TrEMBL record:
InterPro entries: AAA+_ATPase, P-loop_NTPase, WHD_MalT. The lineage of its organism: Bacteria, Bacillati, Actinomycetota, Actinomycetes, Micrococcales. Residues 43-195 form the AAA+ ATPase domain. Gene3D superfamilies: P-loop containing nucleotide triphosphate hydrolases. This is AAA+ ATPase domain-containing protein. Transmembrane segments: none annotated.
Length: 391
């Protein structure tokens, strides 16, 4: 296929956007997650890393990439990449940084910023990936920033025609607009989700060991219970413990008195999670988390006729939900306890009447039997490392 004539270079990307991020020296190594990623990437043309804000997606990928024996091209996507020409340009630069000047990439062109990508530009990029002469992993971080048809279409085209020498890794806060069911069914998709990214007990212990005030084994267990291994929750809780220790309070007494809503996460949730949602969905989440579990019935109580649709959107966005079973042929989900407690604290502070009204509305649902007949399997995506659907 003829390669389009090269255009004059315009506006090079900031180096940080097109390079593997450096891993801070203070980050505790996680060989378990490194091994999961290595296995998934080796076995699948496409690997998804999907989890909410604060789950450590970028850190985990950067740590794995630092030890990769295969070149890794990295692009940190931002909202301006909804210009497909800009995304195309950034991809080329990330590839050139990873593999240097190679004939397959030299001379590839992209339209001027703001113009549409022609099919031949997309096809030439895919052909160039196959002609690199080396194996390569291409990581696109923060893919949830892409919403435009042109940019999403470019990613989809690369996914659909990725050559055998290239592995793709997409990190996102929610499932991207790709044919995931078909890719799963064909065995082409690996997935790393929130449960796998959460710190397990040994990793919490290793993180706690870096603190100036030692934590006992019961302290570590309590810390894991409070945070459910959510990386940002761990960091913020340890910061709170450090501050308490400066005033003479030992970790055991601070953790013993700490209730989930006391973990200093509310501001983070507002900024990084809830503010990134449509207003209607954010309002639904604040109210729906007043119930420990969620199903279509409780979603309808909280959100009206649109409640089940919004609950499904929460699942799609990986908003701290775990499938725990079913009731009356309806999937039953459980909210991450720390996330739910923080959302309730926010609702109680910002709209106390809505908080009280929601609890009154949910009272009938709480009176229902809370047993589930069996773990739900029909909606759990296969080939997922350490997670369940919606986690």
């Amino acid at each position: 296929m003829a390669t389009p004539a090269a255009a004059a270079p315009e506006g090079r990307q900031p180096r940080a956007r097109v390079s593997v991020p450096s891993v801070p020296a203070a980050v505790v190594g996680r060989p378990r997650v490194d091994a999961l990623l290595a296995d998934l990437v080796a076995a699948h043309p496409l690997t998804l890393v999907v989890a909410p804000a604060g789950s450590g997606k970028t850190t985990a990928l950067a740590a794995w990439a630092a030890g990769s024996t295969v070149p890794v091209a990295w692009l940190s996507v931002d909202r301006f990449d909804d210009d497909p020409a800009r995304l195309h340009r950034a991809l080329l630069e990330a590839l050139r940084i990873a593999v240097g000047s190679v004939s397959a990439l030299d001379g590839l062109a992209t339209p001027a910023l703001g113009q549409s990508l022609a099919d031949e530009h997309v096809a030439a990029l895919v052909d160039a990936l196959g002609g690199l002469g080396t194996d390569l992993v291409l990581v696109l971080d923060d893919v949830h920033e892409l919403g435009g048809k042109g940019s999403v279409g470019l990613v989809r085209a690369v996914v659909e025609d990725v050559p055998p020498n290239v592995r793709l890794v997409l990190a996102s806060r929610s499932d991207p607009a790709l044919p995931l069911r078909r890719l799963r069914g064909d065995g082409l998709l690996g997935e790393l989700r929130q449960d796998a990214l959460a710190f397990d007990r040994s990793e919490v212990a290793a993180l706690a060991a870096t603190e100036p005030t030692p934590l006992t084994d019961p302290d570590v267990d309590r810390l894991r219970e409070l945070t459910a291994g959510w990386p940002v929750a761990l960091r913020l809780t340890l910061t709170a413990l450090r501050g308490a220790a400066d005033h003479g309070a030992p970790p055991s007494s601070t953790l013993g008195a700490m209730e989930r809503p006391d973990v200093p996460l509310a501001d983070y949730l507002v900024e990084e999670v809830l503010r990134g949602l449509p207003d209607e969905l954010a309002s639904f989440v604040l109210r729906a988390t007043c119930s420990e579990t969620a199903d279509a019935a409780t979603a309808t109580l909280v959100g009206g006729p649109d409640g089940p649709r919004m609950l499904e959107e929460c699942r799609r966005r990986a908003l701290f939900l775990t499938t725990v079973g079913d009731r009356d042929d309806d999937v039953v989900l459980r909210w991450h306890a720390l996330f739910a407690a923080q959302c309730q604290a926010i609702l109680r502070r910002t709209d106390p009447e809505a908080y009280r009204a929601t609890h009154r509305t949910l009272a009938p649902a709480r009176a229902r039997p809370r047993t589930s007949r069996r773990p739900s399997r029909t909606r759990a995506p296969p080939r997922t490392a350490g997670s369940r659907r919606g986690s």
